[in-house]
Amino acid sequence: MSEPGLPEVVWLGPEPGGRSGRPRRWPRLSRVAQATALALGPVVRSLALIEPATIGDDDWSASEAAWRARMEQIVSFPDAEYRAAFRQEMMPPGVPPPGQAPPLSSADVTRARLQYHATIRRVGFESEDLRALVQPVLVVTGGQSHPRFADVAARLEQVLPDARTATFPDCHHLRAPHRHEPDRLAALLLALWHRQR
Fold first, then answer.
1. Does residue 9 lie in a domain region?
2. How confident is the model at residue 138 (pLDDT cuts 50, 70, 90)?
3. Could you report the per-residue pLDDT of 147-167, keeping only the tens digit for each?
4. Domain count for the chain
5. Which residues form the domain of 90?
6. Dihedrals phi, psi of 156, to nearest 5 degrees
7. CA-to-CA distance for 49 and 71, rounded, in angstroms?
8. Residue 22 pLDDT exceeds 80
9. Which helix (H) or strand (E) holds 141?
10. Within a domain: residue 4?
11. Which of 75, 121, 153, 168 has the fewest CB atoms inside 10 Å of its own CB, making it the most exposed?
């Protein structure tokens, strides 16, 4: 329970003792946050979305249709190619992902594929449905992410009545703002909570 006058914060993060102590499965959490806000309406007082992987089942633009088709291809790649292709798709075309990621085990690739099919491929709502969210919304993108993430932010600004976007120029989907610019993100979250109705 929060004190009167203070925002109540619910953290959807790793379980205690989770690997490396950082939030995991951001795309699924973003989808859960959107679906929860749609289902509960005004009970959800504000919403922050950090590079959401999906904002509906519709192909609301040509770039979104291309993105979804490419992700379908990547999910079907052999285990040895999956991670590199996925990481590359998070970056702008022609820009290599940072560093060398350790290879995933077959079990990790299987888990990633299942997550995609269960929580990202089809979410049960379309982007236009998000217009029903009247709460203040913060949409965060990385300036060095695949341009598709900026398109998602623009689409959210288009359909959400009270959305504000913030771009972190030195961040991208693999170099997340909450890890690399936590002070700026914290200030944006405080401003969001002060906009609550």
1. no
2. very high
3. 999 999 999 999 999 999 999
4. 1
5. 19-194
6. -65, -40
7. 20
8. no
9. strand 137-142
10. no
11. 121
